[in-house]
Structures are given as C-alpha cells and as structure tokens.
Amino acid sequence: MAGADYPRKRTAIACEICRARRTKCDARKPACSKCMELEVECVYRKPNLWDREPVTAAATAALGKVDSRLDQIQTSISTLAEQVANITKSQASLRLSTEYSSPLAAFSPPENNNSPRIDLLVNQPVQPYQRKPDPPTYGILTSSRSHGHRMPNLLSFVSPASLGPFSYDYANKFFSGEVINGDRLFQSMEECLHMADFPPDFSQQTCWRLQRAFVDGFLKWLPLFGEETCLHHVRIAAASNFSDTNTSTCLSLFIFALGAMALDDRFYHEDPVQLPGFVYLALAQRMLRSLTPFIGDIELLQCQNLFSAYLGFAIRPVQSWNEIGPVARECMITLKTDWRRGDPETTNMKERAFWVAYVMENELSVTLELPQSGILAFHESVPLPTSQVEEEGLYYFLALISIRKLLAEVVDTVGFKAGHALYVPIVAIELRNQIFDWHKALPPSLQFQLDASPLFDLRKAHLRGQLLCLLVVVYWPFVLRHVEDYAKGQQEACNEVTAAERHSVHERAKQCIEYCIMELKAAEGIMMQKTLVSHPAVRAFYSCLVVLLLGYEAVHHCQPPPEIAQLITYAIEVLSMWDVVPFMREPILRVRRFAADLGFTSPGTHGV
C-alpha cells in the first residue's frame, strides 16, 4: 500500500578513513578493523548531515593527525618501492639470512585472539647488567662490500656501535676452505674409481635397504619423483648388474649414495673417502659426465638434482650450490620451450625437477649470500607438483615451496641498509599476516603449534623453524630502531606521538628476542640429528643465538633472568656439537668467547 510506513533498514556508515581509501569498512565502534590495523584514529560521519555540529578545534586536530598518518604511510610505501628497485639493480643487494631461517612480524595492531603471543618469564626483578670493560675483538672486517647492519649470519656481521664490538667477516676464509675441500672431494672421487679396495655392493639386500633409506631420507623431504619411479629405474639397472651406461643406472647409483647418507649417524666426514655411499657417488658422477647432455632430458635433470642434494646432505654447501646452478639454468631454458607437449607424467616430472632446483638454490643462495640464477622469475609460470597416488612427502614439499617463496619476499623487502632501518610498518604487517595465514593453511598432517614443544616429525620441526626465523628476520630492524630511539631518548624530550611510536617499536623489538628464544628451544630436536636440512638449520640456530646475545640487554635493559642465561649456555653446547664441521669451528669459538665476555659461559672448544 502506498500509505504504509515500512521500517527502513539500518545501514552501516563507513568511517572517514575507509571513505578516503575507498575500502570496505566493518563499521565497528569505537574503531574499525582497518583503522586499528593502521593505528590511526577512527572518525565516523554522523548519519544526518543536516544536524552535524560545527567542526571543533579538537576534530580538526584529530583529522590533522589522520592526514599526517596517511602521509607517513604513503612516504613509507614510496621509500619501500625505491629500496626494492635499488635491491634489484644493485649488485650489492640487501640479503638477510633466515637463520633461519631462518625464524616475522612487525609493527602490528593491538593484540587480538588471532595473533599468537609468547609468554616469557622476563619481568623478574634483576640488577642492571654490567659488561666487562674493553671486550676483545671477534673478527676482522676485510671485505670491501657494504654490509649494513643486517641480521647476524655465519659469514659476516657489522654491529652498530650501540650493540657492541661483535663484528666479523668470515666470508673469505669460509669460501677459501670450502673450495679446497671441494677440490679434495672431486680428486678423491677420481682416485676411488681406480682403487680395488672400494668395490660397490650390489647385493639384493643392500640395494633394497638403500632404496628404503632413500625414500625415508630424501623423497619424503624432496619428492623429485615417486617411489614407483625409484623402483623402476633400479629394476632396469639391476638387469645389467648396474654396468650399462644409461640414465637408469646413473639414477640408481645416486639413489644408493643418498640412501647410504641417510643411514649414517655422523654429522660430518672430513675425509671424502669416508663419506657414506662414496663409491656409488663416484660411479654415478663419472657416468653422468659421460652421458650426452640433452637439454630438457628429465632423467638427466633428476641425476643432477640428486648429485647436488648429496653434496648438501654431506654439508658441502658450496659444491652443492655449484652443482645446482646448471640445473636451474637448464630448467629456465626448458621453460622457454614447448615443455608441456609431452605426456602428463613427463610434464609432472619436469615440474618437480624445477621446484626441487628452486628450493635448493633459494636455500643455498640465501645462506651463502650468493646470487641466484634467475629461477625465481619463473615460479609463477610453473604449476605446483601433483600426484595420482598418496605421497607422504608431497604436502610437506608444497608447504616448503610456499614458505621459500615467502622467504624470498621477506629477504628482498625487510632489512637494514646503510645504517638506516627499512622501517615500513604496513609492509611488515602484511608479511606478518602472510606468515600466519601460511601457518593456518597447513594441512592437518603438517599442522603444529607455534611454540617450543618437541616435534618428533623433523619435517614439521623444519617448517616451524623456517617460520620462526622469518619472524626474527622481520622483527630485527625494530631491534636496531629501538636501540637508536633509546639513545636519542636519553638526550632529547619526546612528544606524545613520538613516545607512543617508540613504545610500539620497543614492543616489536621484544618480539624479535622472544622468537629467538622460541627457536633456540624448538630447534633442539632437529639439531640432534643429521638430515637433508641440517646445513640451513645449523646456520639458523647460530643466527638466533647471536641475536639473543646481542639484543637481550639492549632491548630489555636488564640482565637476562636465570632461565634465559641457562638457555644461552645450553644453546651454545648444542651448537658446539657441530664443531666437527670445519667451517663451523671458528664461528662456534667466536660465540663462546662472546658469551663468556658477557658472563654466560667460559670460553673454549667443545668436541664430539
């Protein structure tokens, strides 16, 4: 009826910020989600514009603060774009270690139920921490390239004066030693082939045992192909007693070599001849060189991937990086061809070969601070691997691919360069959200709590370690920013806005230290056993330990409580188990000396 007076639907009114940004507003009171995320004042327009009161001085001031905040956001985004452009163009690009990774979050909005927190016993009354005067030096800076105050890693670190004298440049010595060890390795492979004392064991029992170890120790981590493919190639090679020169025999020999490595309990073998499966490796490498290198031959790509993986498993990272480079380049050339023209199974194998090369090269390039081949540019055009059968390692592999993609993004956008923090809160929020979204999206078989509880599934433990290291990488600039702010705060008065901002920075700096603590606790299991990811895991552990040693007092402004002091001492002992690796001896000694200077433990070496 025309005269009926129907009730009108109540509509939500967007706040002024969302109106200006043309984004959807949830109209929450007193502040919508977007304004809370941006940490700006949320202002709503009154529904009846005719009854609106005149704008007061307070309202004008509030709008001025909003405009100022938006200007800061725009400036931050512009600065980030410029920094990323410089990173792309410059040879001395900003690279952070994820030590580990490797453990991200940054200038976050007020805490909510979706943001995990870590409770630490750090509020106990303690006495101001007194450092010993004139501590010793811990390394010599000889490199001419610009370091910046990046997160500490195994190769180099330039400490700001406010954090102490813990600066070093170990890169030249590390690479010199690894090149010598690599030459010795390849020379030993040549000599092994001419010695009758090292006959390969091709008995049926041994071959079966090594295949099973290969599946558990490699395919469940990096499913380059399925178990049926493994069995298929071994059957073909066994028909000729592994004497025919073909890709099936070559693949089988690499499979046996990796299987033997997976069965070995020792962290490291300094003598190459003592490496597990060394005879199989030498035979496979010689056969690989004799095969015609057809570009795009999937089985040759698989052989090269396995060779690089063995070297990484044996903690020969420089040689592993040197071997994965040609694989990555060949993958890029193949992707420029009509590579999908073959049957679906072959296409899927090529996709797997690409992603294994992608993960391995990305991991090695970040930890060794070496340039990548350019394979990152192709990751959007290659589908993720699939399988027609249930493969235990495939879900883990997909999760690893996604977090390595995210790691590349974090390394390229968050850091500390030329003495100035890349302090971009909005970008840090987005990276933090992506990390937590990744964690929430894990399949049930890979889900884990974001805490330090023991994980006997080492693949889960590795994923958790990667996540925690990413959090540390993103929060590290806030530690440096807080140190700068604290020094300035002792000399000048702060207005209300500056004080609030410094408080927020301080909270994020504390988060960096907390995630370091969590990583040192959580990584215990994966540090106790040699796996395919031991090399990046050890480097990540080292970085988090150094950040904790450098940053705890600088962030909390007090002596670490007994729980943290005990953790530091224990972490040093865990790290010291890896001093059997030649390139780890000097970094471990450096950390022990630094910790002793801070009063945590006595200097010395630790052998296993």
From TrEMBL:
Keywords: DNA-binding, Nucleus, Transcription, Transcription regulation. Signal peptide: none annotated. GO terms for molecular function: DNA binding; DNA-binding transcription factor activity, RNA polymerase II-specific; zinc ion binding. Pfam families: Zn_clus (PF00172). Residues 14-44 form the Zn(2)-C6 fungal-type domain. InterPro entries: EcdB-like_regulator (IPR053181), Zn2-C6_fun-type_DNA-bd_sf (IPR036864), Zn2Cys6_DnaBD (IPR001138). SUPFAM superfamilies: Zn2/Cys6 DNA-binding domain (SSF57701). This is Zn(2)-C6 fungal-type domain-containing protein. The lineage of its organism: Eukaryota, Fungi, Dikarya, Ascomycota, Pezizomycotina.
